[in-house]
Amino acid sequence: MKGIILAGGSGTRLHPLTLAISKQLLPVYDKPMVYYPLSTLMLADIREILLISTPRDLPLFKSLLGDGSSFGIQLSYAEQFAPEGIAQALIIAQDFIGESDVCLILGDNIFYGNGLQAKLLQSKEIVEKENQAVVFGYSTKDPQRYGVVSFDKSGKAVSIVEKPAIPQSNYAVVGLYFYPNNVIQHTKTLTPSDRGELEITDLNNIYLKQSQLSVTTLGRGFAWLDTGTHESLVEATEFVKTVEKRTGLKIGCLEEIALFQNWVSKKQISDNIADMKGEYYDYIRQITLK
């Protein structure tokens, strides 16, 4: 399975912060926002990853992340010239995807919780063995801002509606999607919505109507943070700060995950960060001494 991070758009809700830089390069406490979705893909044991962003911002992402070898992964890049929907990322990435299954994650989504990696690996297995798509539902107080999934009495998903005026449930579909390889042909059948976008909800509904969609709910003990507004960006920073200060462990530390996955050695990490300074790199140095 391959991975895609969609880090495009103009971040208008975060102006003036994003007038000169991508939203996904803004800091969330002690690391750039893009570290968090990248770490999620790495926890899902995905090593071939395409990052999609604007022509203006791609050089900055390349400067930050390089080819991914420092983290034991293969990173490549593609341009999104205009934000025309989340599903557009799959069209842009079709040559990269090739004959593989794929996981798409939004560059401003942060996931955290005990057992997260197990859910990610389980989702990957469902796609690979059952040829089903997998999305995640998370209970939120303002579901009307998102695609909303509703369930029948048995807990089976029965509908997904994009930004409904009257939500049928409190479960938002979060920005993390696992698809079998046929997602490319399904995406090519989509037509732009009234707002001129290829809607990810329309794509998910294709799988739902074919009984090929699995919806996993993220319950108590899991955190999903969508950092698209000034308030939510501050909340995400405070959340990461609180967890890291209380536990002494980092969230979204790419080097730590790469080491845990045995993708890089302690010596490789030590060599890579030899000239780096700051608390983040001090943490990594402590890991390499254990």
UniProtKB/TrEMBL annotation:
Its cofactor is Mg(2+). Residues 2-241 form the Nucleotidyl transferase domain. It catalyses: dTTP + alpha-D-glucose 1-phosphate + H(+) = dTDP-alpha-D-glucose + diphosphate. Its EC number is 2.7.7.24. SUPFAM superfamilies: Nucleotide-diphospho-sugar transferases. The keyword Metal-binding applies. Belongs to the glucose-1-phosphate thymidylyltransferase family. This is Glucose-1-phosphate thymidylyltransferase. The lineage of its organism: Bacteria, Pseudomonadati, Bacteroidota, Flavobacteriia, Flavobacteriales.
